[in-house]
Amino acid sequence: MIKSSYQLCTLFGIPIHLDLSLIILLIWYIHIYGNPFYGLIAGVLLLAAITLHELGHSLVAQAFGCRVRGITLMIIGGRALLEDMPRKYWQELLVAAAGPAVSLALGLAGLYVPIMLCQAGMLSTLGRNFLVGAVGLLNLGLFAFNLLPAFPMDGGRILRAALQVRMTRVRATWIASRVGRVLAGLMVFFALCNILNIRLPVFPGVFGKLLWYFLASGTFIQLLIGWMIFTSADREYRMVLMEEGAANRNPFAGFPFFGGKTEAPPDDGQAVVSPPPYERRSSTRVDVRKED
Q1: Structural domain boundaries of the chain?
Q2: Catalytic residue IDs
Q3: Fewest CB atoms within 10 Å of the CB: 17, 49, 68, 210?
């Protein structure tokens, strides 16, 4: 029987699994580079970057007493399976920020180390250019993309944690989840436009140009990520309502987009809290514990 994922190794006591969808990603990389050797090497470097990004989340979560069941690498990125989620907002902020921090460090190292090695005569110009693109620019791109406030991605979780300084967890989750759904909708829209070769104007301003760069360069993978974020944002909001015992007090319950359904997600044994970077795998249940 063919399994959907296979364990590659164990790092810091955390199993690392490879999903079969990565075959599509490797084929795509080979197509981009036009060379099987460089495509495979670039694909391996991408998987290593995503693994280290997810380890950043996982190790910080473990430091706060959360249990990590494993990390799965898929075509749409990585996913750490957490049995427990941080309850305090500042803990969630640090867990969410740990992954982008790792990507930023790898990106800066990938930019400067190959240049220094090339200047010292230890690396060819071709090797320098390859590593700058496959390590430096790639990780800087992961860093910037993950900081988009598209809850429940890293940037969205950071946004929710910041909002909890001034409001309850339920209201902060509602705001972050709706911002996430709007950005997810934009991801899907721009990915479809890019796939169908529909030209769109560039947004004005520096921020607009950066946003256009990340959204308008979308591919089929971005389409999948956008759809997962759109569905997971509402699912997480419903989960928080159940955990906080606030389902009956949801002021937005009557509006499909803004309020959504208030019943608990189905007890399928795989209660998704987020797409990349992390997910909780356990039976769906109401947790009415309060924060300290």
Answers
A1: 1-147, 149-272
A2: 54
A3: 210
